[in-house]
Design brief:
Elements: H1 11-35, H2 38-52, H3 73-83, E1 93-96, E2 105-108, E3 113-118, E4 121-126, H4 142-157
Antiparallel strand pairs: 1-2, 3-4
Keywords: Hydrolase
Protein name: AAA-type ATPase N-terminal domain-containing protein
Domain AAA-type ATPase N-terminal: 36-129
Length: 168
């Protein structure tokens, strides 16, 4: 490389250097086309294209509600965060209040989408619910469930006396 003092200063010198470089590249290119098989050139071209093609700007993060038995802390944190991002344009909310809570809590419902911005990144939150085959709940009605509990109590006590169970 040239140092700033040795750098050519005239246009004719720069043009001469450019012409030499271009002629050398054309000669290398023609030699490569004759020596290197077409298939290898196509493979190299696709590999370089893959490396230098920009990836999609969208990234999907899947946050499961449970990690085995305990609840996922990341899921709980996202749920709490999204409660602060509910806007009037939200179509459906899940509202609840337990005896321990002092206030009503609102959260997004299945299929709801919330657009957010974080450090100049556009973020799209979408709640998608799926039921795992291993944890699929039984489709019992409340009456059937109470009958099964009553039958289990009869078997556990060993007597035919029926323990009172609330009827529906």
């Amino acid at each position: 490389m040239f140092s700033p003092k040795e750098m050519p200063s005239t246009a004719s010198t720069l043009f001469s250097a450019y012409a030499s470089f271009a002629a050398t590249m054309m000669m290398v290119w023609s030699m490569a086309n004759q020596i290197v098989p077409y298939e290898l050139c196509a493979y190299l071209h696709s590999a370089l294209n893959y490396l230098f093609t920009p990836r999609s700007s969208a990234l999907t993060l899947v946050i499961d509600e449970c990690c085995g038995m305990p609840r996922n802390q990341v899921y709980e944190a996202a749920e709490v965060y999204l409660r602060t991002k509910v806007v009037p344009a939200t179509d459906c909310l899940r509202v609840s209040k337990t005896q321990r809570q002092k206030h009503i809590s609102a959260a997004i419902e299945k299929g709801e989408e919330i657009n957010d911005k974080f450090e100049n990144f556009q973020v799209k939150w979408l709640l998608v619910c799926t039921v795992s085959e291993t944890f699929k709940p039984n489709s019992l009605t409340l009456g059937e469930l109470l009958k099964r509990v009553s039958d289990a109590r009869k078997e556990a006590t060993g007597d035919g006396n029926e323990t009172p169970v609330h009827q529906v």
